[in-house]
Every structure is written in structure tokens, then in C-alpha cells.
Amino acid sequence: MFTSHALVVCIPTTPISCALCRSRRSTGERRMEQGNRLKRLSNPDLRCRNKCGFYGNPIYMGFCSKCYKEQVRDAPGSQATPLVAAQDTTPTKSAASPGAFAAFTKFNVKKNVFATAKGKGKLFTKGKVTAGFDQPKEKKSKKSKVSDNTFSEFLKTLQKPAAKDLVQHLKFDHRMYSESVVCLADRFHKQITDRNDTATVEEQSEAVQEFYTSMSERLTTHTLFRDVAEEQQEDMMDGIEKHLMTNIFPMLATHTHTHFTSPLVPLVPLSSSLTRRVYSPDSCDDAMRDLLLVRRIRMLHWLEPTHLDIPLNLHDLQVQEHVSASRQSLCDMDQKKAPQDKLLCISRCCQELLAALKISRDGPASADEFVPSLIFLIIYTSPQTLYSNINYISRFSHPMRIMSGEVGYYFTNLCGAVSFVENVRAKNLRIEEEEFNVKMGFVNGKTDIDLFLMEGEVEEEEDRERIMVLESCTERMKELSGQLKHMLGDINDLSRKVTESTRGLTEQVSTILSMPPPRVLLYQSPRVGQEGGATGLPPGRSTLQAPKRERGHERRWSGDKRSGDRKGFTSTL
Amino acid sequence: MASPSDAVGRRQATVKAKVVLLGEGAVGKTSLVLRYSENRFNDKHEQTLQASFVEKRLNIGGKRIQLAIWDTAGQERYHALGPIYYRDSQGAIIVYDITDEDSFHKARNWIKELKRMLGDKVTLCIVGNKIDLDRQRTVTERDALEYAESVGSQTLLHFSQAEQGNH
């Protein structure tokens, strides 16, 4: 009790009152305080929900601390921790609960597949009015709407005839592209069914790149754009690229996604987002490379900043802030669709890192410090789909963007850093080969890739065994269900026979019983009665049995006579 | 921004060039870049965040040139990353430390590699840094000049941060 009290600082002027102090104050003090408090408590929203006269607190669900404690104590099983704690534990955006998200992704994929199955001709129907493009039928995400808006805004800034031409040209090309994508998708499907996985993403990428080339050629040669400034032309290309990529993104997502046929896929964990299906399609080994990179990073967990001579002063708060912002940007990349946006994340990441370096070094950083820091940052952050992201950008981005300029420089550095992580050796870290092998968990000189492949083989073997077991089980199940069906038929036959014979029997019995009793029996009846007495049957029993049947007196026949009669019955059947 | 009068010829005039900065770690690549960028455009680069990527706009003989200088990590362990950086570059600045024979050797390796990978398209510029430490010089000027001529390097500069002068 006292420890919790120590945590609550009691300042008379603060609206949150201390539960323990209430009992210790004299009545005079309390009255005075109450007067003050009533003034302060003019706003009913701030008061405790229990109406005890004290202030409530949102972290105590609107109760004051004392009433909250009572509430919790009175209601066992209710949430004992204040809401603040619950808020703290809610996962961040990047680490959203994977189960729910995977389910959502599955749903989305199903939806997309369904949309494709509905007919390819219908997939590209009437589009949006804003820019006049054909849009895929699927419901557009918020983001692409935003991009549409920005794009139409951007078009407004252009000169009118130029913009018109641009729209026309884009419309034309967009349709062309849509058709070509459909063609590619068809071919892709065929290839998948033929078990011949060739890289169709490359073809898609080629189509996009061709479009960029034709577009920029048009911009530089067409009379309408002659007077447009160079910077503006670049902006135009930016806008076009962003618009195109954001809009064809769902298309690509639909067409590139097919059944998992790659033998490596069982090794890959369920994708964490829908976007992953686009930039790590089955036709290439992006997903595997992603996994390998993550595994390698995990193996490098022992790496210290000193191994790479990183001048980052991680004890400095400001540096820490910049580094965490940098990591955040690197992770944010997964949420972006257009290559530009992804590149923007990369450059933000690098700039934050450079800022951190600048503080640590007290001067502008050069590549000598920047590259190792970036490598360390990647290992420190361990992004799940870095490789796929890089490949996606290099496939679908305008080449000028990733080859030149500051963004291009950062992208190149990122590629370099990833390649370093992938190929890191003992001499790169200035440690002994043996130490490196031990730390990385390499056995008998086998690298993680060897181990990975071996694991894959083992798993494949296991999978094959499992499949065999499953197949034998299915066989047996089929057999059993056949037998069961047979037996069910037998049972039906039998029950039908039984009902038939029962009905026949009942009818016969009723007809026989409705006939007058044969005279022979009447004659014999007294003898039967004597016999009954002779056998020593208690007279009560015969009288007891009598009311059960309508002709009770006829039932007093002796056992052997009845059996004789029964024989007569059976013979008539 | 150019005036409207030269709007017609402007497009051909702007030349974009990528220059990669190579050299062993701690030969003074950073100071070289900083001196170069801040000497000409003082106010703009006062608050330099970094010296790894520097963009320069030059005007030479009426031609607008946009120079992008890409710094690379010079440490030996990152040597393998070189091709990623110097791919598609039009020029290369190779820096060595005149007091460090080893750095000159590394510079020669870089040039050999550049020649092999990029052919003769690339413009080379060899820089001997730290000439203020002339007394500790281990790489003679004559050797450097001879080498520069042999590889067809367009320029051989000697540079010093302390004296603020190019030779």
C-alpha cells in the first residue's frame, strides 16, 4: 500500500486527489478543500464517474484512483491494469498482428483472383473521370485516390494543350499497357500450368520501362512540350510514373499472383502483406532471397558497432532519435506502392542516419562512415522484405531516378550495404576465420546458404514422406467409405425386409384372430385348463394375463398346445 | 534559373555527369569534397549535412553542367562494393595520400579496375593529397606524374587542406 502511495505525488492544486490523503486530513481542512475543489470541479466531464466528488482520470476509465481500485476489486476478472498500459502494449503499425493481417491478405487475394476469373475483358472497364484513364475494376485504395487527386492537381499546373495531349497519350498508352498485361498474364498462366516458371516479372518490367522511354521521348520531341521547362518535364515524368505505378499496382498484384508452385515456397513464411505478391512473385526467387537475408542478419546478431568501426555515438539521445527515425523509414518502405515513395523512404532513412552521424562526429559524414553505418542499421533493423523492395524498385522505377541524383546515391548505397551483408566474411570484420565461423554457426565450413539448401532438401524429403502418408490415408479412407456405403445399402435392404415381414405378419395375425376360434381348441380347452393345473402354474398368473388380450379366456391354453398352434401359424406363413 | 531568352538552347546545354570519388580510407576524400563544394558556393553548403553526395552546378563556356560527386567507402573491406558505385559514371577522382605509399598503390589498383570495367570512356583525375606534409612524402611527384601519363589521366592535382591550394 505504501509503495503505491509513494508513486502518487500529492500536490494540493492538482485535480487528481490522493486516495490515501483523504482520511488523514482534519475535517476543517477537508471542508476548505472541498470548497476549492467544487469550484474546480465545475466541469462534470472531469469528475469521477462514481460521483464521489473527486476528479476522475481517463486512465482509470473515468473513475478516481480510489473508486477505480474498488471497481477492480469488486469486479473480479476485469482488466486490472489501467488503460494506459493497454495502450502501450498495442502493437505498432509495422508489427501488426500477423494472423489477422494474413487472413485479410488471403481475403484480398481471393477477391483479386475472383475478379480475374470473372473475365479478363471486364477487368478493365469504365474508369475514373478525373484523369480519364481506364481503371481496373477492383475497388481502389485510399492511396490511389489520393494519387489521382495529386495527379489531376499536377495536370492543372501544366499548360492546357500540353496537359490535354498528355492525358490523351497516357490514356492510349495505359490501355495498351493494360492489354499487354492481360496478354502477359495469360502467357504467365499458361507457363505456370506447363510447369515452366520463367521470369515474367522481367517482361512486365520491360513493358513499364518501354512505356517510360516512349513517354520521355514524346516529352522531349513533341511540339507541345517544347516550351516546357526541363524541371517541369521531370516533374511530369514523376507524376506519370507515380500515377502509373499506383494504378497498375493492383493489376500487377492480380496478375502476378498465382498458385504457389515454386518448390521453395513451402519454406517461405506466409507473406506479411499484399504488396509482397507483386514484388516477390513466384517467377523469381525474391522471396527466398528475402528469407536468406533475414536469416543472415539473424546470424549476425553478435555484431557490434566496433566490428565495422562505426562512429555512431549511440549513447547520445539525439543520435538515438535519428537512428530510430531512420529505422522507421526503412520499415515504412513496405507500406508504399509507387517506387518513388519507396525511394523517398530510403532517402529519408539515409538522411536521418547522416544526421545522426553528423552529431556523433561533429562534422559532415563521408561515405567512409556512412556505408558502415548503413550496414549496421540494416542488421540492427532487420527488414523482412528488403531484397524484394530493392528488386521491385529497380524493375519498375524510372532508370534515371535510381542511377543519378541524391536518391540514386542512397539507393546505390543501400544495394551495396545489402550486398555486403550477403557476402560478409571474416576478413571484412577483421576477426579470425574460426571465430567468425563459430559465431555464425557454420559447421564444417558450410555457409548459411549450404545449410539453407540442406534444410530445404530435408524438408522436401519430409514433405514427400508426409504426402505419401497422406495419400495412403486417402486410399484407405476411400476404401472404407466404399465399404460403409455397401453396408448402408445392406442395412437398408434388411430394414425394408424386416418392415415388410412385420407388416405381413401383423396382417396375418389380425386376420387369423378376427376368424372364429377353431372348434378343436374349444374342445380341448378344459383339458388344457387341467393340464395347466397339473403343471402347477399358479392360478393367479393365468388370471393376470387374461386382461391383456381381448379374448382372455382363450389364452388359458397350456404351453405345449400354444406351441402347437404357433407351429400352425408358421406353417401358414 | 535561366532567362527565357536562352530557353531554346538550354536543353542541349545542361550536361549531367556522375563523378565517383575513390581512394583509401582517411586519405582526405571528405575534406577534398567539402573544400570543393564550399569554395565556390559558400553560403549553400555551410550547413552541410554530409559529404558523401555533393551536387555542383557549373557554368563552363556557356555550358551548364550538373556534377554529381559520389563518395565511396575507401576501406579495404568495402572494396568489393566498388562496381555498384562507379557503374555509369563519366568521371572518377582517385585520391591518394602522398605520405602513404600504400594509398598510392591502392589508387593504382582502382585505376586498373576502372579501366577494365569502364574502358576509356571514363575521365580520370588523380589527386595527391596532403602536400603540406611534404617532408614526410613517400610518393615522389615524378613517380606520380609518370604514372598519370601512363594511364592517360587528364589531370594530376596536388592538394592540401591546410594550405588551401591546388597545384
Structure description:
The complex is a heterodimer of chains A (573) and B (167). Chain A has helices at residues 2-7, 21-24, 27-40, 65-74, 83-89, 98-117, 120-123, 142-157, 160-193, 200-221, 230-256, 276-279, 286-299, 317-332, 339-361, 367-381, 386-396, 399-403, 405-423, 433-440, 448-514, 519-534, 539-545, 559-572, and strands at residues 124-125, 135-136. Chain A has 24 helices and two strands. Chain A folds into four domains: 2-83, no CATH class; 108-259, no CATH class; 276-441, VPS9 domain (Glutathione S-transferase Yfyf (Class Pi), Chain A, domain 2, Up-down Bundle), CATH 1.20.1050.80; 516-572, no CATH class. In chain A, helix 15 (339-361) packs across helix 17. A two-stranded antiparallel ribbon of chain A has the order 1-2. By secondary structure, chain A is mostly helical. The longest helix of chain A is centred in the C-terminal third of the chain and has 67 residues, at 448-514. With 167 residues, chain B is α/β, with parallel strands linked by helices. Chain B has a single domain (10-166), classed as Rossmann fold (3-Layer(aba) Sandwich). Chain B has five helices and seven strands. Chain B has helices at residues 7-13, 29-40, 82-86, 101-118, 141-151; strands spanning 15-23, 53-60, 63-71, 91-97, 123-129, 155-160, 165-166. Chain B: This is Ras-related protein Rab-21. Chain B: One of its GO terms (biological process) is protein transport.
